[in-house]
Amino acid sequence: MSRQEIAEVIWQMALYGGFPAAINALNAALETFAAEE
After folding, report:
1. 37 residues of the chain, pLDDT tens digit each
2. In three state form, how does the secondary structure of 1-37 look?
């Protein structure tokens, strides 16, 4: 999956898990993306 697709999935799950969880997930994804580079 591309980074954009991962972010989109996280935002879709925000409705089920809540926005604070989605923000935490996006921050974790950004950290992971930065570690890959």
Report:
1. 999 999 999 999 999 999 999 999 999 999 999 999 8
2. CCHHHHHHHHHHHHHHHCHHHHHHHHHHHHHHHHHHC
The alpha carbons of the chain give a radius of gyration, in whole angstroms, of 10
- Record the tokens describing residue 20, joined without a space: 């604070």
Give CA–CA dist 18/1, Å, rounded.
23
Confidence (pTM): 0.79
User: What are the φ/ψ torsions at residue 36 (nearest 5 degrees)?
Assistant: -70, -25
Residue type, 29: A
